[in-house]
Design a protein that fits this description.
By secondary structure, this protein is α+β, with helices and mostly antiparallel strands. The chain has ten helices and four strands. It has two domains: 205 residues, Multidrug efflux transporter AcrB transmembrane domain (Multidrug efflux transporter AcrB transmembrane fold); 73 residues, Alpha-Beta Plaits (2-Layer Sandwich), CATH 3.30.70. 69% of the residues lie in helices and 10% in strands. It has a four-stranded antiparallel sheet with strand order 2-3-1-4. Helix 5 runs parallel beside helix 7 and helix 7 packs antiparallel against helix 8. The longest helix is centred in the last third of the chain and has 33 residues. The chain is elongated and about 80 Å long.
């Protein structure tokens, strides 16, 4: 294995351990979608008060932890523990003291429903990982004489875990020190990261398979390195064009899409990296010599 793969793979392992450590130490700050609670979206007809002013007005109601985020030019989104209709009306009365407003949306999610959503989210990601492993084992069966299809699956799964752990660790840190909460769209982001990452890895794997069948006398490590170089430009181009679109969403998509697009930015960039410096080194380590 070339020295660059050893160095980058070692760095990847360190990053995975650090990200996992952040997750286990701090955990994820789960939002109302998973823990249950209420969401209130309002829009002021004139100037929107500062979030600090809104927070001070609601402190008297003893609502517990409240997340206040801006929506558009005059809107606000409030996330809080589950409340009754009476408390809902009290909140509106307090907010109207800061100016005329219009209620856009009010939803309450029970704790049972939130727990069910959390369980189904974990199951969805687990099923996706299993199906990806089976798919790779079937598709790359032709090269089983050189390397086991299950080793290919192992490389892809470790790369996927790498791509998931990075945003998970980052959002664990954000949740601890910035109060950023994880909501339902983040599950869509996680599944999108899985799909993008495996797509990049399969492109590299497919080129490895082609080169193995064409050059059976050549060393396996040399074939992997050659395949990576042949697909490198393609990986960079597709990653950059995708990132440009996601960065545009992050900048112009509004506060409700900030965390979703940020997770995608981290995951997509990580996916291009992991297909080269995580999945490929694993193949070199475990191939049949």
């Amino acid at each position: 294995m070339a020295k660059v793969y050893k160095i980058m793979f070692s760095i990847s392992l360190i990053v995975m351990v650090v990200s996992a450590g952040l997750f286990f130490v701090y955990g994820l700050n789960l939002g109302t979608d998973f823990t249950g609670g209420s969401l209130l979206e309002i829009e002021f007809l004139k100037d929107r008060p500062e979030r600090g002013v809104i927070g001070e007005k609601l402190d008297n109601l003893n609502l517990g932890q409240i997340s206040i985020s801006e929506a558009g030019e005059r809107g606000l989104i409030l996330k809080m523990p589950e409340i009754t209709e009476e408390v809902h009306q009290q909140i509106l009365s307090e907010l109207k003291k800061s100016g005329e407003l219009e209620e856009k949306k009010f939803d309450s999610i029970g704790s049972v429903l939130g727990s069910e959503l959390k369980r189904k989210s974990i199951i969805a990601i687990g099923i996706a990982l299993i199906m990806i492993s089976v798919y790779l084992a079937i598709v790359f069966f032709k090269v089983s004489g050189i390397i086991s299809p299950w080793i290919l699956a192992l490389g892809a799964i470790v790369a996927l875990l790498h791509d998931l752990l990075l945003p998970i660790g980052f959002f664990a840190w954000l949740g601890k020190f910035r109060g950023v909460a994880i909501d339902a769209p983040m599950i869509a982001a996680a599944l999108a990261i899985l799909g993008y990452s495996i797509n990049d890895t399969v492109v590299v794997y497919d080129r490895i398979r082609e080169n193995i069948l064409k050059n059976r006398g050549e060393g396996f490590n040399e074939i992997v390195h050659k395949s990576v170089k042949q697909t490198l430009v393609r990986s960079i181009n597709t990653t950059l064009t995708t990132l440009f679109a996601v960065i545009a969403i992050y900048i112009f998509g509004g506060p409700t899409l900030k965390n979703f697009s940020l997770a995608l930015i981290i995951g997509i960039a990580s996916g291009a990296y992991s297909s080269i410096f995580v999945a490929s080194p694993i193949l070199m380590l475990f191939h049949k010599k």
